[in-house]
Amino acid sequence: MGLRKMAEATDTHDYWQLSRLARWHVEREAMNQALAMLVAAQGKLPMSRLCVNQLARLTLIRPRLTK
Q1: How distant, in Å, are the alpha carbons of 8, 39, 56, 62, 64 from that of 67?
Q2: What is the per-residue pLDDT for 9?
Q3: pTM score of the predicted model
Q4: What angle do CA 26, 30, 31 make, to 5 degrees?
Q5: Which residue intervals define the domain Tn3 transposase DDE in the entry (predicted)?
Q6: 19 CA to centre of own chain
């Protein structure tokens, strides 16, 4: 069902509100995909290995909290 028919079927949202919501959803999904691609590309850089190694060392020497 298209946005125009959805808007006609309801009295809570008009066509422009539905259009804006649909655009927002697509844009948000596109942003999430772009962020995932960026993180994946950064993970392939040589410098990322140094950061991961440093983080692993910090995690190993961090004192554990007792209950």
Answers
A1: 59, 35, 23, 16, 10
A2: 93
A3: 0.42
A4: 120
A5: 1-50
A6: 21
Residue that is written with structure tokens 């060392």 in the block: 57
Helix (H, G, I), strand (E, B) or coil at 12: coil
Using CA of residue 54, residue 60, residue 63, residue 64, what is the dihedral sign?
positive
Write down the pLDDT at residue 14: 92
Residues 20-62: pLDDT tens digits?
A: 888 877 788 888 888 899 888 888 888 877 776 666 666 665 5
Other CB atoms within 10 A of residue 6 CB: 13
On whether the CB atoms of residues 13 and 7 are closer than 8 A, the answer is yes
